């Protein structure tokens, strides 16, 4: 019964919606955004708690403004993700372009493999879809399959149609051990709570003790991948500008934790600049730092 409901929802509602112009989808987004914030109140307590802890110096009116802006962007992202199912390459590249492609071209010419660390900022679906068409690298993204197999197949097909290849977390080590001729760019989103707080790297992030998965740093150091920070800046509704910046080009020459600290400082600075752009609706600080014995 669930599978039938999933198919009905996708083929009769979501997929037809994806063929509508974004202007019409934004009209629906504005309505749904209002209902999500004021009526459904989706995760309002989580968002408010995250914001007040992250920005203790801001007044409640400032917090509420960020909160409302976040919900508008969040629902826009949902409708943009629906559009991503059928958006043409021409429209995609018009809406999402790389600001500094010469930086990536330079690393490619130097023969560097790259790990791109990023966070849940703005529209990461357009980001992933457009990337393979704008860089000389073979592109990959770390991927955690959904429990719902129907939507997992839909999302997998959508994300890979332009050349992005997805790597399941459990296949990461075999993937990095492969000896291949092409140069690789591997995108890893690393701003969620670590699965094992005992093995996490801890620092102060947005005014709170925060644990981070050490996976990207360990992979970079073990297999000598340069690490860059990449994010999609929202230029205006529906238009994004991807920019890359250096985290660590020679990972084997720095101590453990340095790469994570550098990356998280860049992410924190970006969130301070555009606070409504980050995904505040997840419980980022559900773990506490283990006490040292």
At a glance:
By secondary structure, the protein is of the alpha/beta class. The chain has one domain (2-277).
How would you describe this structure to a colleague?
The protein has about 290 residues and is α/β, with parallel strands linked by helices. It has one domain. Helices cover about 45% and strands about 20% of the residues. It has eleven helices and nine strands. It has helices spanning about 1-20, 20-40, 45-55, 60-85, 90-95, 100-110, 125-130, 150-160, 170-175, 215-225, 260-275; strands spanning about 95-100, 115-120, 140-145, 165-170, 185-190, 200-205, 210, 225-235, 240-250. It has a seven-stranded mixed beta sheet with strand order 1-9-8-2-5-3-4, sandwiched between helices. α2 packs across α4 (about 60-85). The termini are far apart. About 30% of the residues are buried. The mean pLDDT is about 95.
Ordered list of secondary-structure elements with their pairings:
Layout: H1 2-18, H2 22-40, H3 44-54, H4 60-83, H5 89-95, E1 96-98, H6 101-109, E2 114-118, H7 124-130, E3 138-143, H8 149-160, E4 165-168, H9 172-177, E5 184-189, E6 201-205, E7 208-212, H10 215-223, E8 226-236, E9 239-248, H11 258-273
Parallel strand pairs: 1-9, 2-5, 2-8, 3-4, 3-5
Antiparallel strand pairs: 6-7, 8-9
Helix pairs in contact: 1-4, 2-4, 3-4
